[in-house]
Structures are given as structure tokens and as C-alpha cells.
Automatic annotation (TrEMBL):
This is DUF4398 domain-containing protein. It comes from Luteimonas vadosa. Residues 1-18 form the signal peptide. The lineage of its organism: Bacteria, Pseudomonadati, Pseudomonadota, Gammaproteobacteria, Lysobacterales. InterPro entries: DUF4398. It comes from the Bacteria. Keywords: Coiled coil, Signal. Residues 50-112 form a coiled coil. Residues 25-101 form the DUF4398 domain. It holds the Pfam family DUF4398.
Length: 119
């Protein structure tokens, strides 16, 4: 009877591990997030974050191929988060650049208007 309790615990622990599906959804999500960041010019505006995302995605894919699903899942989540950060930083930099351009246009128009009103 004493031997059955540890065996039962081992069986339950193995069954709990086996219930997690492979992290294919996480890998797919990470891949899409990296692509989205690429399309937002993250190489220009957030190079560190996009490189971290690409590296984590490669490591996640390698871990999956090696059967290390837990590592693959964690790395895929890291890749997606890093890619999302790269995307957000890129969009922010683009918005700030556009804002600066619009402010310069407004300043130029104000200057022209003031020159036209006071010849």
C-alpha cells in the first residue's frame, strides 16, 4: 500500500503534464507579432526589441523541434511580448515624427500668415 501512494502521485503528475497541448498557437501568435512589428518598421524604430523577439522566436522553434514544449511555450510568449513592444515603440516613434512634421507645418503657416497681414 505504501508503494502505491508514490506511484499514484507520479501518475497524476505525468497526467497533468500530458494535458497541455503543444504550443503551436503560441508559436503562431509570436510569428504573427514579429511580422506585424516588421511591417511597422521596427528595425528602424525599435531594433533591440525586434531583435530580441526574433531571437526568442528562433529559440522557441528550436525548443519545439527538440521536444522541449514548456521552453517553447515560454520563449514563444517572450517573443510575442517583445514583438508587441517593438510594434508599439515603432508606432509611437512614427506618431511623434508625424506630430513634429505637423507642428512645423503649422509654424510655417503662422509665419506666412503674419507676414501677409503685416507687409
Amino acid at each position: 500500500m505504501a508503494l502505491q501512494v508514490p506511484c499514484l502521485g507520479l501518475v497524476l503528475a505525468l497526467a497533468a503534464c500530458a494535458t497541455l497541448p503543444p504550443p503551436t498557437a503560441e508559436l503562431s501568435t509570436a510569428d504573427r507579432a514579429v511580422s506585424r512589428a516588421d511591417m511597422a518598421d521596427a528595425d528602424q524604430y525599435a531594433p533591440d526589441a525586434i531583435e530580441r523577439a526574433r531571437r526568442a522566436l528562433r529559440l522557441a522553434q528550436d525548443a519545439m523541434a527538440s521536444g522541449r514544449e514548456r521552453d517553447a511555450r515560454n520563449l514563444a510568449l517572450l517573443a510575442a511580448a517583445s514583438a508587441d513592444l517593438a510594434h508599439a515603440r515603432s508606432r509611437q516613434a512614427q506618431a511623434e515624427s508625424e506630430l513634429a512634421q505637423r507642428r512645423a507645418e503649422v509654424a510655417s503657416l503662422r509665419q506666412r500668415l503674419s507676414q501677409e497681414n503685416f507687409p
